[in-house]
Amino acid sequence: MAETVKLFVNGREVEVEAGKNLIDALRVVGIEIPHFCYHPALGADGNCRMCLVGIEDGRPPLVPACKTPAQPGMKVLLDDQKIRKIQRDIMELELINHPVDCPVCDQAGECRLQDYYMEYDLQDSRMRVPQVTKGKRMDFGCGVVHDQERCVLCARCVRFTRQITKTGELGIVNRSDQARVTIFPGRPLNNRYALNIVDICPVGAMTSRDFRFKQRVWFLQKDEGICHGCSTGCAIYIDHHREKNGDDVIYRYRARTNMQVNGYFICDAGRLSYKRENENRQDLTLVDGVVVDFEQGIAAALEKMNKARRPLLLVSPDATLEQMWAIKRIATFYGATLSGYSDAYRIDDDGDDFLISDDKAANRYSLELLEIDRDRESFQAALAHADLLVNFDNDLFFSPINESLQRLLGEQDRISVCSHQLPVFSGSSVILPCASPSEYGGSIINRHGVLQRFRRAVRRNADPRDILEITHLLGGAISSAERAWPGIRQSVPVLRSVEPEQIPVEGLLLNNSEERDVGP
Amino acid sequence: MRDRSQLQAAGQPFTFDAERNDEFERLCTRYPIRESMIMPALWLAQEQQGWISAEVIEYIAERLDTYPAKVYELATFYTMYHLRPVGTYHICVCRTLSCYLRDKQEIVDFITDEIGIKPGQVSEDGRFSLEEVECLGHCGTAPVVQINGEFHEEMNVEKLKAVLAHLD
């Protein structure tokens, strides 16, 4: 527990963490100080003036809370008459040229300006002169659309490109009421984290081309999830919505703050990977190319597996720890060879030193922990030798590098348990649809060894089964994620004392060693 | 304040000539923070070319290892930088409070009527250009007009007529 200090807010004593600025420190105890420009990742800028508070200790009458560290005994005034007046005045200033187009603004419902207007202002406009007009729907590149008129010039976006991505595409040009955020002509946003700008913009000035006008935010159900785009395992929000009688559709991923994994941001590729959850899904159960009931599919698969003398089970490096364990158990049950071969999930030199990783598999670390073989040669040898391949959603052709494998696969009798219609699964004699990561829960371990747990977010009409349930139907002993844990604890020393229900929201760092680059 | 963000291209790459390059290098030693050199560098470029083109901004950003957008910010913020070619006589009229209250608008209107140029424009013959600028620091003797760097204080239309008449 960090050191704490006691101070007074509006006469009430509170205990907060020492050294933090007032905005962050007081938020923890449920006291919000309004602000636009301050963002914990970008530091204090002090340009919006919205967070001005009074402090009764002889310092200037008003100080910006974002630049004022919490100190013992401090007497902070938030509700004072003069503070309320300042807040009203700042709001009036911000709204002088701001178009009141909340009904058609994509940010309505999650806009600070809108919230603060309701909370602090509520006055009619006194403006009798024409508003300053600026650029609308400007394409800033990377899917970011800018509306200059809605901008409150908090400069969060500008600071983001300078401090976080270090690409500096944005700047504020001109001065006074002509000031506006823009790009240098001919040099649009060009970085792999650009859509975070949309997240950090406190108003509707920065919107995502991908999400714009697709859905009103108050209709979205916001669930916590973990990005499966690469082995960093960033914490995300999964925003989805189910129309009446329709299917549950994911509309976007947003960054969820997790200081142990991704901080405040996620990469654009991960953010847009929600599309994978919606598109190209395998909904039908097929036996020899004929559509059948799921139960018939299971029966056909069972028959094949019971007949097979040398079955080979292939596990996906995206599967959860519990799923991997269940597949491992079922492999033992059938006396099958088990492989976690997944070279294709790696894109060399794609990663950076921030969030993006070369390894596009979410849970390769668990393959190593469960001692599941990941070697190419042994997989290929096993494949040549096997008479049945049961593929649990492993996309061997994530990148087109495996032509020799493709030939081998073509000759093999295959059962595919798959969430998506992918080339690798076509030609399988039995295809069983399964759930994609947003549709099941479980635990994954990222490349730094952080164990995170996520829950099911999405339920579809044609509800696909979790791989874990399917292994159970195919004769496996594990029927649920909870039931997998006693076995996991027993066989993996580092997880021996882990209670899945007690894993903190930020995840559990399994060991303190340096980052492990878990090989294929 | 008009919008100054419409950058023009000169159509040819910009580099400092030998003299300005030496001056640039000399000034660099005086600024421990390299980005502080943006303004003097813009000034040098304007001295050489007469105005700040898109190429100048890119060149300076590269020389100072900073972002073009940052140089762009400063060039558009300060009215002393010309973002397009100016006339032989560049007339700056202060538009900030004291001058505003003491009828700077009459002077601007006079120039617009007489020479036919609005703030930001250059006369057809290329002799005059007009800019409304931020505070010139002569509030005590407002309104003030600056022509090619020379200050004319307590200006009014009559005095301006006389000043213009004396320009060749």
TrEMBL record, chain A:
Residues 220-281 form the 4Fe-4S Mo/W bis-MGD-type domain. Its cofactor is [2Fe-2S] cluster; [4Fe-4S] cluster. Keywords: 4Fe-4S, Iron, Iron-sulfur, Metal-binding, NAD, Translocase. CDD domains: fer2. Gene3D superfamilies: 3.10.20.740, 3.30.70.20, ADC-like domains. Residues 82-121 form the 4Fe-4S His(Cys)3-ligated-type domain. Residues 3-82 form the 2Fe-2S ferredoxin-type domain. Belongs to the complex I 75 kDa subunit family. This is (2Fe-2S)-binding protein.
TrEMBL record, chain B:
The lineage of its organism: Bacteria, Pseudomonadati, Thermodesulfobacteriota, Desulfobulbia, Desulfobulbales. Coiled coil: none annotated. Gene3D superfamilies: Glutaredoxin, NADH-quinone oxidoreductase subunit E. Transmembrane segments: none annotated. It comes from Desulfofustis limnaeus. Keywords: 2Fe-2S, Iron, Iron-sulfur, Metal-binding. Pfam families: 2Fe-2S_thioredx. InterPro entries: NuoE-like, NuoE_dom, NuoE_N, Thioredoxin-like_sf. Its cofactor is [2Fe-2S] cluster. SUPFAM superfamilies: Thioredoxin-like (SSF52833). Belongs to the complex I 24 kDa subunit family. This is NADH-quinone oxidoreductase subunit E.
